[in-house]
Design goal:
This protein has helices at about 5-20, 20-30, 50, 80-90, 105-110, 120-130, 140-160, 165-170, 200-205; strands at about 35-40, 60-65, 95-100, 175-185, 190-195, 200. By secondary structure, it is an alpha/beta fold. It folds into two domains: about 1-30, no CATH class; about 30-215, Beta-carbonic Anhydrase, Chain A (3-Layer(aba) Sandwich). A hairpin with a 4-residue loop joins β4 (about 175-185) and β5. The protein is globular, with a radius of gyration of 19 Å. The model is unreliable at about 210-220 (pLDDT under 50). Bound molecules: zinc ion. Zinc ion binds near residues 41, 43, 66, 105 and 107.
């Protein structure tokens, strides 16, 4: 194994773990009780614990290329996402489910590339079909990509509602769905307002006036 990686493991054992030994032991003794199922992109620039100020025991995490949710299909060949959803909702009883997309998502960009660009990556090409309905009939631009990222987040949330455990939880008021669009270069997270279908800045989502008139960047979903 890469020496550098092993060195980092040793550092965790020596420096990090001793500081949080009791917390870790409590998490083992009492079991995990995360409140949130976080579905995010595999992109290395997304660090869910940093974004949400959380640590061990707080998030049940599923990550995949493009933060995508396949249509509900209990007999389908890819139950990975469904397994995590069922376990999180029915066994762990999470309250919140987040779909977190992000700016400059390679999965979304790939949707606008010629099919032959993915010729050597057939599984990736198939997987990306789960976001294809979000694609806009326009020439690709940074603006189109940001809008497609947001449209895909909404699409995945809609698919999530096709999972019976999620639909039942939402109907009971026990589960809440959230769409986040992380703008990496700005250090901001735009939050989906389900009533308007718009992604708004966190201060707007919290009901506070935006800091700076034009600062509340919200992109209209179209
Ligand atoms: Zn991504």
């Amino acid at each position: 194994m890469d020496d550098e990686l092993v060195k980092r493991l040793a550092r965790f054992e020596r420096s990090f773990f001793p500081k949080y030994r009791e917390a870790y032991r409590r998490l083992v003794k009492e079991g995990q009780h995360p409140r949130t199922l976080f579905i995010g992109c595999s992109d290395s620039r997304i660090v869910p614990y940093v974004l949400t100020g959380t640590g061990p025991g707080d998030l049940f995490v599923v990550r995949n290329v493009g933060n995508l949710v396949p249509p509900y299909d209990p007999s389908g060949s890819d139950p990975a996402l469904g397994a995590a959803v069922e376990f999180a909702v029915q066994s762990l009883r999470v309250r919140d489910i987040v779909i977190c997309g992000h700016s400059h998502c390679g999965a979304i960009r790939a949707l606008y590339e010629e099919p032959q660009a993915l010729r050597d990556m057939p599984q990736l090409a198939r997987w990306l079909d789960h976001a294809r309905d979000a694609v806009l009939p326009v020439t690709v631009s940074e603006e189109a990509l940001r809008r497609t990222e947001q449209r895909s987040i909404v699409l995945q949330l809609e698919r999530l509602m096709g999972y019976p455990a999620v639909a039942a939880g939402v109907a009971k008021g026990a589960v809440f769905l959230h769409g986040w669009h992380y703008i990496i270069e700005e250090g901001r997270i735009l939050v989906l307002d389900v009533e308007t279908g718009r992604f708004v800045a966190t201060d707007v989502a919290m009901g506070e006036p935006a800091a700076g008139a034009a600062d509340a960047a919200s992109y209209q979903l179209q």
